[in-house]
Structure formats: structure tokens, C-alpha cells
Design goal:
about 140 residues; mainly alpha; 5 helices; elongated
Length: about 140
């Protein structure tokens, strides 16, 4: 990954953080108006319950965080998953303490951290290739 690629990943992460903050700290549940759609989905696919949909959505929500952070700061990639865990715990604590219509959940922390881990794993091969190229270039000098 090039320096420009790292900058792009950092920019995408900044945009993502703004969107995530909007979702995480919205005063009411963000899926409140989607109840009719969720009922249709769960009626059509009975094993796809609301808790499973919510868990999957939380996983998907954090995949970009893991990917962008890993690509944006490749040398610091080992800290991506612990940072995502800390951010997720912070979000859930804030929701539990500050937002009366929101519910904090340990399962959300698990799902969010799982998503960030998946994003990290998806970005890791590119980071390793970049590191290997850097080592090869350094030996050639």
C-alpha cells in the first residue's frame, strides 16, 4: 500500500467515525422505523430473528473500522482490534449512561469487536505484502 493509499484509508476512517458517532449516539434506536421491514424479513425467514439481524448488523458496522485503521496505520495494526474493543465498550457505556431510549449490550461489544477483527484480517495481507516489500528493498540497498 502506498502512502497515498494510507492517507485515503485514514480519510475513509474519519468519515466512518463521523457516521458511526451519528449511529451510536442517535437518541433513539436507529432501527425503530424499520420495524415493518424487520417483521417481513423474520416472517419470510423464521430462523433470521431480530437478535440475529442486529448482531450481524453490528458485525458489518465495524468491518470498515478494522479495515481502514489497518490500512491507514499499517505499522500499528496490532492495536486495531484492542482499540476497536475499547471504542465499542465506550459506545455501549455512553449509550447505557446517557441515552435513555438506547440499550447497551455486551453482545454489541462482541459483535463490534468481531467486525473490526474481520476488517483487520481482510486488510492484513496487504499490510504484510507492504512490509515484505519494504524489507526486500532495505536488503537491496
Amino acid at each position: 500500500m502506498t502512502v497515498a493509499g494510507s492517507r485515503t484509508a485514514r480519510l475513509l476512517l474519519a468519515v466512518y467515525v463521523v457516521v458511526l458517532a451519528g449511529i451510536a449516539f442517535w437518541p433513539t434506536p436507529v432501527d425503530r422505523d424499520a420495524g415493518w421491514l424487520l417483521q417481513q424479513v423474520t416472517a419470510a425467514v423464521p430462523w433470521l430473528t431480530y437478535p440475529r439481524i442486529e448482531f450481524g448488523a453490528n458485525i458489518l458496522l465495524f468491518v470498515p473500522a478494522g479495515w481502514c485503521a489497518t490500512r491507514g496505520w499499517p505499522r500499528r495494526h496490532p492495536f486495531v482490534v484492542p482499540a476497536a474493543l475499547a471504542v465499542s465498550v465506550g459506545i455501549e457505556l455512553a449509550q447505557g449512561l446517557l441515552l435513555t431510549d438506547r440499550t447497551s449490550s455486551v453482545l454489541d461489544v462482541v459483535a463490534n469487536t468481531t467486525g473490526a477483527t474481520l476488517g483487520w484480517l481482510l486488510a492484513l495481507p496487504a499490510v504484510r505484502r507492504r512490509t515484505a516489500r519494504g524489507r526486500t528493498a532495505a536488503r537491496a540497498r
